[in-house]
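Appendix C reproduces, verbatim, an entry submitted by the partner laboratory led by Prof. M.T., so that reviewers can inspect both the input and the predicted structure.
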Amino acid sequence: MSRIDIMTALLCALLAPALSSAEEGPSQRTLPQFSVFPDPAGQFATFSVAGRIDTTNPFFQDLGSNGRRCVTCHQPQDAWSVTPPHIRQRFEATRGRDPIFRTNDGSNCPDADVSTLGAKRRAYSLLLNKGLIRVEMGVPETAEFVVLHVENPYGCTSDSKLSVYRRPLPSTSLPYLSVVMWDGRETFPGKSIFEDLGHQAMDATLGHAQAAQPPTDAQVQAILDFELQLFAAQVATDRAGRLDVLGAAGGPVALSRQDFFLGINDPLGLNPTGAAFSPKIFSLFDAWASLRERGERSDARQAVVRGQKLFNTLPITLTGVGGLNDVALPTDGQVHPSLQATCGTCHDSPNIGDHSLAAPLNIGLTDVSRRTSDLPLFTLENKQTGEIKRTTDPGRALVSGKWADVGKFKGPILRGLAGRAPYFHNGSAATLLDVVEFYDTRFALHLSARDKADLVAFLETL
């Protein structure tokens, strides 16, 4: 298999266990239909409904000018995203020459000094430490705000082209999306999610890979068809063992068969079937609740059961959430500055965990109070009211131009979490415990130590 040229030499090394079991025919190379990889919690797997993972697909081909491929930032062993430990391995193995290290969007600024190895470490520090890609966006001409000041620790201080830093979203389980990209910039009115994904593939080839011309319609369709066949989820944790035994429904095979349509179980009354919202989002481990086992593994499984129950039932008082507490809700036409909710209010898709309709929200991740020294700070002014907002990422507002959209992002699919840390759009949560701690603090949940551990145990199984 040493002749495989579908990825960089380093990626081949990282994937050696999986590639060694791949089938190689006279005209195609494949990975197994069910490909398993280790992660910090145990193991996750990718399942392809096509029967195999075809690595001759344009997803793995160099269609640009800088060596980048879709797989460069969407790697199988990282649950089809990228993770800092593997990015650092690639840096060391190639002395910063791997295609992910390109100044068009991999460096902290486009004009960063990359003349020496040390300079490269500094230039790509956000990518190396948090897996963040720089996204350069202009302020819409019709925006309701102006940029008064940009404080960027790396020198990107333009107020017309803003540099924001975000995690690559996973290119798996895509049939369950309602929005493409963190800020929805690849979601277009009147277009299906499949058309949006095709447009995103074209833009990624022109932008990230710096292609001189767009990919062909056939190449875009082949990438789209490939991505839509992939489903990734945890298959085992070190503590609870396999997640598809004793009646449990964990893993990517069950995920690939999950019912979904836009608006399914929407909490705001927008389900097209008219069905009422159910806060019971996850039922993967219901069967484990009645197990009568003893021992360490049993204790771990019961922690998962408790964590799933907390996700489904924990009362949460939502306040200050842009997109929920400051708008009239379709359910009653009223604004609710305080809203009684559960995790499922924002993660309503059954056994998937994203929102089944476009619902960008500002939960406070970009507030100045949460800024760390490695992120920029933007000072924005409302043109009409003179109100000032300071944020580390304007979010959806850089797409819509709306003042109300400052700091808003979508909630991602929650499956395969353990394989793709860190979390949130800006990588601000290094671990799943950090995610739980954020919500505990943000919404004054007063979780006990056991509650936190149980929630982490459950999230690790997704």
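The longest strand covers residues 230-237. Additional entries are available on request from the coordinating office.
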